[in-house]
């Protein structure tokens, strides 16, 4: 089902392409040995190269290149064995060199693709145009003093990957799914932490609208949107604005806009600059970057299993539904937890407990899987008691809640509370007889054809036995007598 917007003149389709800036995980900056870590006192992570002192020479950080290549491989993209660094010239107070070193005509990574899945199960492929490396700029601080602005260069020179998508995205939902998937891949690879709140991943959102079957129309670029939710909102309000412009007989100008989440609107920032405004040229301080296929192969062998592959393996190996598998591979730590619970056990039962009760408990307590109050071994221990029929499924819920609270093992709780399932036929038969005797009228009705009452009898017997009876045996015993 495709997403469209209705205007006065008919149905409009949204066209979106995203440019994502992802901060590379590395100890030092792209061209200097200064620390690339987040935070720190202003101007404490700054080398003379970052500060743009005359005569300083950039030296390329090999680890940043490796991270860019890993990311390219994770996006199933072409790796360009030869790429180049260019100077993108502009004047800004937090850019002391007067140019940003970036890759313009020859990026390190070419075309790739990201698979996304929508809520209704539709799978779509979003094309990646390119990934290139570039430096981040410093930060201007206007809120420290009423009269003066300050500059913090800690971020200046930190390596970024700019990941550009094709204009393949057709709805806010697809944009959200794409960003979540991209972030998931980057986190699996360990190439970017994907924390949008800290700014280590930010998106420029290109939006245009068209009538079905038309070529693309002019787009606007919404700069630096820093949450997935805002990206989705920004697309919707910008598309709506453009539809109004077109329908009133106007023209959408290609320009850069800002999204204001408080007012839920976009505002013009500047008309779109062209590449020639930056006077790009190859940086004379840096040789073309040439990498060997053998090194790329080595990096590829070192990649972890990626989310899509892991999901497909879970479906094959554990026989769980694709949807459950997608949920379980959302984070590497969740997938690891699940596999530990599932190993040698009923894997579907394990999936139900992890995605159901465990996720519910984590949500309620505001925790993540890594600080789960119930370890994978402990949950596995409880499932063992269900499988060997020490406890039934209903009692398992009670045991689980107790585990959450006390941190005790399932076995200890079953012992302490005397929750062991009753499989003694004598005791079950006695309870059955008692329940039937007390409900003679209902027995009559049941025998008269009111089959639905069977469940009532099961419930009464279970209740009489404090929930601890083996449900299959209760069913058996009831059928025999009735
Ligand atoms: P620039 O380099 O000037 O930013 P690009 O052609 O590289 O321009 O495109 C930048 C982004 O804009 C890409 O993500 C691309 O998919 C997207 N884009 C291009 N044309 C359109 C369009 N008509 N509507 C929406 N997005 C577009
Ligand atoms: Mg751009």
From TrEMBL:
Keyword Ligase: yes
Catalytic activity, as annotated: L-aspartyl-tRNA(Asn) + L-glutamine + ATP + H2O = L-asparaginyl-tRNA(Asn) + L-glutamate + ADP + phosphate + 2 H(+); L-glutamyl-tRNA(Gln) + L-glutamine + ATP + H2O = L-glutaminyl-tRNA(Gln) + L-glutamate + ADP + phosphate + H(+)
EC number: 6.3.5.-
GO biological-process terms attached to the record: glutaminyl-tRNAGln biosynthesis via transamidation; translation
Keywords: ATP-binding, Ligase, Nucleotide-binding, Protein biosynthesis, Transferase
Molecular functions (GO terms): ATP binding; glutaminyl-tRNA synthase (glutamine-hydrolyzing) activity; transferase activity
Gene3D superfamilies per record: 1.10.10.410, GatB domain, N-terminal subdomain (1.10.150.380)
Subunit structure: Heterotrimer of A, B and C subunits.
Function recorded in the entry: Allows the formation of correctly charged Asn-tRNA(Asn) or Gln-tRNA(Gln) through the transamidation of misacylated Asp-tRNA(Asn) or Glu-tRNA(Gln) in organisms which lack either or both of asparaginyl-tRNA or glutaminyl-tRNA synthetases. The reaction takes place in the presence of glutamine and ATP through an activated phospho-Asp-tRNA(Asn) or phospho-Glu-tRNA(Gln).
PANTHER family xrefs: GLUTAMYL-TRNA GLN AMIDOTRANSFERASE SUBUNIT B MITOCHONDRIAL AND PROKARYOTIC PET112-RELATED, GLUTAMYL-TRNA(GLN) AMIDOTRANSFERASE SUBUNIT B, MITOCHONDRIAL
Family from the record: Belongs to the GatB/GatE family. GatB subfamily.
Protein name: Aspartyl/glutamyl-tRNA(Asn/Gln) amidotransferase subunit B
